[in-house]
Amino acid sequence: MSDAGTSIGGARNPVAAGGSRLVIDGVVKQFGGHTALADVSLDVQPGEFMTLLGPSGSGKSTTLNLVSGFAQPDEGTVRIDGVDMASVPPRRRNVGMVFQNYALFPHLTIEANIAFPLRQRRVPRPEQARRVAEALGTVRLEGYGQRYPAQLSGGQQQRVALARAIVFRPGLLLMDEPLGALDRGLRESMQSEIRRIHREAGSTVLFVTHDQEEALALSDRIAVFHEGRIEQVGTGHELYLHPASTFVAGFLGESTMLPAERSAGGAWSVLGVRVPAPSAVPDAARSATVVVRPERARLRAVDDARQDELGLSVQVLEDVYLGADRKLRVRFADGTAGVVREVAGSMSPWRAGDRVEFAWRPADSAVLPGSAAPAVL
Amino acid sequence: MKGRVTGEVTGTVTGTVPAAQTGGVTATAKAKGTGTVARHPFAVVAAVVVALLLVVPTLVVVPISFTGKASFVFPPDSWSLRWYGNLFSDSRWTSALRRSLWIALLSSVLATTVGTAASVGLTRWRRRRWAAAARALLLVPVFVPAIVLAIGIYTVFGSLGLLGTVTGFVLAHASLGVPFVVISVTAVLQSFDVQLERAAESLGAGRWAVFRQITLPLILPGVLAGALFAFVASFDEILVSLFIKSPFLETFPIRVYQSVDNDTDPTVAAASTLVLVVTTLVILVAVRISTLRTRRLGT
Ligand SMILES: Nc1ncnc2c1ncn2[C@@H]1O[C@H](COP(=O)(O)OP(=O)(O)OP(=O)(O)O)[C@@H](O)[C@H]1O
Ligand SMILES: [Mg+2]
User: Fold this and answer.
1) What is this model's ipTM?
2) CA triplet B119, B202, A35: central angle to 5 degrees?
3) Mutate which: A67, A68, A91, vs B, most B CBs within 10 A
């Protein structure tokens, strides 16, 4: 009895491996005349969970392929633990990869699928069996070893793919939209599985998704891709609170983006209301964008102005009650769309059709150079 | 007789491969009927008529092989197995049969190896247009009139000293078998997920390991079906064989052909029936294998 207790307490981490450091430096990749990646650099720390987030076609998979070795950069380098990967074929990179469609070998049992990388490395049979069993335990699929992939559900296949990618203890794990094909409930439970496995395995993870919630839920840091470039790298918190561009602000979470202009006299205004001069904007700039997150704004009566707030008149277009919170969509005088979120306990009485003021504290907003593509209703 | 035998060879070319893909129908015309022209009544009638036209003359040989008399009268009025007895006791027939089976086996192995390697290689070729051209080149034996091929092979083999040798037969027949392998393997490769090879490679497998452990097992049904078609293509080949044979090296179909001229008893009908049975059985197995594949991969 006491034996069992100590062995559980002292259980060696089944898939422990030090994470690798990945450095992508000035990478350019073109397909024909089309630039898929234009100067991408990224430094991923050992053990870090880094997510590549961006819209379709922004170059996320291309970046992953350069790391896995299935494509070669036209310029720049990919280094894993300091070693330039230029002349290292995929099979020698020791990088685990989870494909979007799982890519399980249909003619092999689950056990044989997971043992595949060990077999290639000529790991002795008993050791193979032991590690396969451990990996099956890690993804909670004990007892499924003798089945074939076609006999498993989508979520189970996903776990097998994960087990197969970690069983050889790669220092770097690549996942290209691994949860893309799963339904919502399953996605969320797989997200926590992935978090747990990452914690246990300790390997560096490069994870691709175009789902911002998934990125926020999983990542240590997020790299936001846009048209073959990285717009910003940072923690979810940093990206949400301090977006570096209107693209990042628009892509990560909801926000209201208001056009700011500078008059000849040097004073800044938003839709005719004077605002403090933004610090993050070049002196010569004539226009900028004010970004207000929905939970940082409030709707107030026209005569309810407060000293520390800026206010603009809006019309409420829609109010959507969501249980724990409520979302109100509004329209500014020039047609710009805005959004406000109110949490339970402090909900305002406004309804669709009301004319009110959209108010925020300048300190709670971000001012970004350039003008956003206006969201007009 | 010559016309009939070659007719059967080309019949195999156009008929059995599509049949293998549409799944389970062996009669040439029927396979075409179900494959392309849905179930229009007229199409069905046409298919049956064509099938009868193709099959009936072939089947006349079967009853004659069981006749009790030493004549080709159809229908026979008495029955016996004596022509089969003759066939299997006459060493001219048995040695030709053994030789034909041996040549068919060797040329099938060769055609399958070359054809599979080429098909797999061609799907990896980045330049699609060149790959298509190369694939068409491998199919040439199907399109070029057999007589042209025969004369070409005769000329080349003559200068290489391959006429009348087993090697010559194997090479010639293998080149005729390659198209079947290419067609059949290319068909399975169409539904093969190349992502699996990338996965295998990323998991540490070298090129050969990827082929041996992933690609080959998954395309095996197509490879085996192709091998069987190539076997048949050799086993019932007559035209090219007539050009490259020697009096000392004859295949079974050549023996049949010559027996029609020289012998006057129905042993030749028994021999033809044997060819028919072997060919049909092998093709049935090939078709069965192709349908097994679809079930296992659940597509
Ligand atoms: N093999 C290729 N040949 C030509 N163009 C390509 C190739 N691979 C990618 N591209 C192009 O490069 C760009 C980036 O593609 P990539 O697959 O990296 O996008 P992504 O961010 O992964 O998008 P998604 O979310 O849709 O998967 C796209 O415009 C795409 O069309
Ligand atoms: Mg992609």
Assistant:
1) 0.77
2) 85
3) A91
